[in-house]
């Protein structure tokens, strides 16, 4: 059984899958149109009917454009054999692919991963707000680190006053005089400053609890299943409230107040007049009060330095939650949704594989056809027509090899008939011998 040529089988296979190729291309174009509709619907504003018809028209235009473009590529690219022309078609196909990605693929990705991208945006914003709350809380608590120094200074002044009152440890004369009055005054100022720091601690704790509650609500909005638009709106409202809490936390920082109070201790130091009855006691009181002034100045410088270090800490910048559309979120966080992007682009650019397959098959058919003889490519109908033409040429007296009329045969001349001598027989009669018969029997017979 003679097999058919490979080029013939390839040609028949291409014809058999042509309908399937058109059907597959139509399905891909329709799928791209559907996801384009879902993606573009979230970008349009207006009434429900306007958004619906505008999205349908756009998606229908995208489907038709994709089907028409790839139909042209499937038909023309495999037939072109020139290298320059084929490169031109490839460049045209590359431009068309870029246009398809621009008008359809990113909307397909928005439809496939839009909700997840918005949740990603909310999660990233939530993380930023959590960091801001922690930083603001840490800055507010940094002022609390000044409380031990202030309390220790207040206790020291109060202890010196008690010692001076009971035993005259500073002036050598016990009793309540100018030195005791000055030390008691310094102790009272330190206690007042400590009370200011302690009072801010409760407010900081309350604000931090409120901020933590807002963060918990925002986490629930991010992780709760359901429609993304209502959750995004609620998330934005919670973000505004949390920003207010963070701003209030920054305002509770008492480092600036401590700095001003410590500066007042030194700059506003007012020593009472020595009230000693004797000049020697008054002199000793002045000396002690001068020592107290130096101690207060040293304490003021230490508190000021500590307050400056706290104030040098960068403050928390006001953060703002910016709502995004699904398409914008997919573009911003594209690295987190590479599989969705790959699927969206593959729907639109999968016909590239079909174009390349057909191009390779047509090249193979051309090579196989070039290597076959004409007799191996002839069809049955062509063979029947050739035989009929051959018979007509023979009937018309035309030489098939040269295509010219055959020469007429030359007339034959009759050969002379030789007379044969008669031989006598027993009966005396002569029997004639036919010349033609004699001629046929003239040859010797094989033994």
**Helix vs. strand class:** mainly alpha
Main sheet summary: none
Helix content: over 70%
Task: Report the principal-axis shape.
Answer: rod-shaped
CA radius of gyration: 56 Å
Distance between the termini: 48 Å
What is the count of structural domains?
2
- Find the count of extended strands (DSSP E, 2+ residues): 0
Strand content: under 5%
Mean pLDDT: 77
What does this structure look like?
It is a single chain. With 447 residues, this protein is mostly helical. It has 2 domains: 6-114 and 336-375, no CATH class; 117-324, no CATH class. 73% of the residues lie in helices and 0% in strands. It contains 14 helices and no strands. α1 packs antiparallel against α11 (351-371) and α2 (48-76) packs parallel to α11. It is rod-shaped and about 175 Å long. The relative contact order is 0.12. The chain crosses the membrane at residues 20-38, 50-74, 86-107, 341-361.
Concise summary:
With 447 residues, this protein is mainly α. The chain has 14 helices and no strands.
List keywords for this structure.
single chain, 447 residues, mainly alpha, 2 domains, 14 helices, 0% strand, disordered C terminus
Secondary structure layout plus pairing:
Elements: H1 6-41, H2 48-76, H3 83-142, H4 147-167, H5 178-223, H6 228-251, H7 255-267, H8 279-311, H9 326-332, H10 338-349, H11 351-371, H12 374-377, H13 380-395, H14 435-440
